[in-house]
Amino acid sequence: MNPSHTTHLNPQLGPRMAFSTGLRLLRYYQLSRPFAPTRLQTLRPGASELRFLSFSRSRSIRPVKSRRREVTAPAAAAAADGGNGSVVVKDGSGGNDGGRVVPTELHKEATEAYMSYAMSVLLGRALPDVRDGLKPVHRRILFAMHELGLSSRKPYKKCARVVGEVLGKFHPHGDTAVYDSLVRMAQDFSLRSPLIRGHGNFGSIDADPPAAMRYTECRLEALTEAMLLADLDQDTVNFVPNFDNSQKEPSLLPARIPNLLLNGSSGIAVGMATNIPPHNLGELVDALSVLIHNPEATLQELLEYMPGPDFPTGGLIMGTAGILEAYRTGRGRVVVRGKTDIELLDSKTKRSAIIIKEVPYQTNKASLVEKIAELVENKSLEGISDIRDESDRSGMRIVIELKRGSDPSIVLNNLYRLTALQSGFSCNMVGILNGKPQLMGLKELLQASILGFQMQCGGKTCKGIIVGLDNLDGVIDVIRKASSNASASASLRKEFNLSEKQAEAILDINLRRLTLLERNKFVAESKSLMEQISKLRDLLSSKKQILQLIEHEAIEVKNKFPTPRRSFLEDTDSGQLEEIDVIPNEEMLLAISEKGYAKRMKPNTFNLQHRGTIGKSVGKLRVNDTMSDFLVCHAHDHVLYFSDKGIVYSARAYKIPECSRAAAGTPLVQILSLSEGERITSVIPVSEFSEDQYLLMLTAKGYIKKVSLNFFPSIRSTGIIAIQLVPGDELKWVRLCSNDDLVAMASQNGMVILSFCDIIRALGRNTRGSIAMRLKEGDKMACVDIIPAIMWKSERGSEVGQGRGKRMKGPWLLFVSESGFGKRVPLSSFRMSPLNRVGLIGYKFSSEDRLAAVFAVGFTLADDGESDEEVVLVSQSGTVNRIKVRDVSIQSRYARGVILMRLEHTGKIQSASLISATESEAEEDETVPAVLDAAVV
């Protein structure tokens, strides 16, 4: 090839090839003459014009010679005026000497070529036709099977035979594309009403590939014959030449049912896509009947008969908002959830399992099981002990065994949120109508697919019959003059404007039978034919009768192939549920051990007992482990976990698995991202993060700090800094407070400081705080408690009586020692003091006893003016004792107190919590605790 000459292009290639051909010539020219500064012009002669693709390497212009004509200097100059990247078009209407060059922008030429390619993909491959709901490949497969005689009553034939027929006659593409399309039309989990009956391995819902086409067999479904192929032989649709003009294929199939809505469709084209959900056959026919009788029917009226999609894999459709939007505008999102059951595996341990029976449409079952296993392994999904797939020929069954104490509703909701067990089907109802892709709603699709197309098909069938019967004498005359059957057929087509099949039908039926019939039989048949002509003419002249015929045929198909609905609709606003939405906000008990084991129990686990009893065990503890915290909260509360390193973590209260009193609990490291050696020292339940609420923090070395609660609503999984600690210090106590409250701090030796919370300045998270109390040598901080403003501001005087009938009125400070002793001291016995002081004596201890906890009590009172609260004591061995505060004696600051809990074999008091009882005491002194008034120590 001479690079100075242009290449003659095939004019049949069209504008799509202009850009790519020009680039190939450009690369060739650059390689041939890399150093010559030239302008390359590529000639592409068309039917009425010549186009040049120019590329400027420099300002010098050098004409390029052509085999057909010389490119003159003026033409090159005109091309140069177009600038770099321009396409110049030379009009050849004036002859070789009188042509002119028209500059054209390169991006415009590329746009036209790309749009031509895009429309070819849209119309010929990716989008279905609205009228029969099929893409070209599906239509050609069904027509080829029809031509091969593979009806539902005939034996199966190899799929390779069908694929070869389609490739050789109608679809000049790869065999894999044809076989994959055939396989999908035979899968009952892909199509709501399969169009092909398969025999052999046609894949599975686990995305297992089908067997090779030389092994599998197929034939048409009876529904396909009745719905798409019933009237094909009566020339009801137009036939067009195939790719090599050797055969004729139908441009459409005569659909009696809106197949596009029945089986749906999906496809990705160039700059456009479609995704139409499948529907139930009976509901579709009912909606069609409504639209036939009332063309002005509203969408709500249609939804009464066809409420939503019906997916082949079943499932639950969550809500109708997405359905309404999709049916109204053509776009919408339908949330589909798999169908599940809960089965009890062991009645003693109350272990249960989640059984998945159905999955959402287009969900890979095997991938779903793998995803669940991966989430369990990564600890993103908790409460699952085992998962296995027990699906067989009888149906789907995925068993998810849960751990003991796991709530099935929580695990199931997490499966919906984190896996494809709940997924959304995005509707994008685009189809080809009148040769153009259009986005349509439900009503527009019904009208386009049936009410226009079926009337056209029915009319064409009747016209073919009437032509032959109305012109019987003329037909006989034409045939008599013909020299052969072929010429007779051609003459009939020319004379009466008939198709080839209509002419053959007249030759085969009418004329051959005339020679055999006797006169009386001919007269009877003529009368019958005249009656048929009259009926057909009446049908053609009445749109109402045609619509009645369409409805009758559709109802006939519906009655012959009934199918119940598989996907059920759930009346809910949204299919997306948060985990907290399925958890009742019930009261619960949280127990946390010193080594970081936590468990959640029901509030009536520990019944009320009398003062001085041994108590009931809180459950098994690990070796050398002791109880640390014991508190009452609600399931929806945010539980803030403060560690000894000054880091705070957050988790909902229900995150801790519920278990029995005897269980050891769950390690907090499975719930929180704790670092090595980090311990949780304080736990605070928070129902809401108010602006006027603060967290009061106290360290082991006596540093105190107040931080606004607004700093802690959003805590990352790895935790955030709550307080800055000095070397060797630990964060020990955290309490909720407001500026109007009082704070009571006590040391292990019984020294007490009572002060206002508002004198403590609010600081940021990453600060240390100030000194809270001046401790003597050997003394340490023991506890801190908050006295609500409503308690200390109430005008309750205190008086000390000398007899049993006189009592000191509240509020009081309840002291609990490590040896199980306790007492109540009136709040009025202590004066206010600033921070960084020694404090006042609150409890006079012996040498071997120390203070374990202090509480402000008297916040809730009974009718007699006594405290209505209860205190829960937990020993180091895990024994729990719950007693009434009113049973604890009121004594002076220097008194030793009374025995609250006997600790002969249970060690010292490890922790204590205060509960406000709201229910009246039962006959056997058993009540249920309610609101937490003070946090755990």
UniProtKB/TrEMBL annotation:
UniProt GO cellular component terms: cytoplasm; DNA topoisomerase type II (double strand cut, ATP-hydrolyzing) complex
GO molecular function, one term: DNA binding
Short name of one Pfam family: DNA_topoisoIV
Ligase keyword on record: no
Catalytic-site annotation from UniProt: 215
Disordered as annotated region, ranges: 82-101
EC number of the protein: 5.6.2.2
Reaction(s) this enzyme catalyzes, per UniProt: ATP-dependent breakage, passage and rejoining of double-stranded DNA
PROSITE patterns according to UniProt: TOPO_IIA
Keywords: ATP-binding, DNA-binding, Isomerase, Nucleotide-binding, Topoisomerase
InterPro entries the UniProt entry points to: GyrA/parC_rep, Gyrase/topoIV_suA_C, Topo_IIA-like_dom_sf, Topo_IIA_A/C_ab, Topo_IIA_A_a_sf, Topo_IIA_dom_A, Type_II_DNA_Topoisomerases
Biological process terms in GO annotation: DNA topological change
Enzyme superclass (EC): isomerase
Domain Topo IIA-type catalytic: 127-582
Family statement drawn from the similarity comment of this UniProt entry: Belongs to the type II topoisomerase GyrA/ParC subunit family.
Protein name listed in UniProt: DNA topoisomerase (ATP-hydrolyzing)
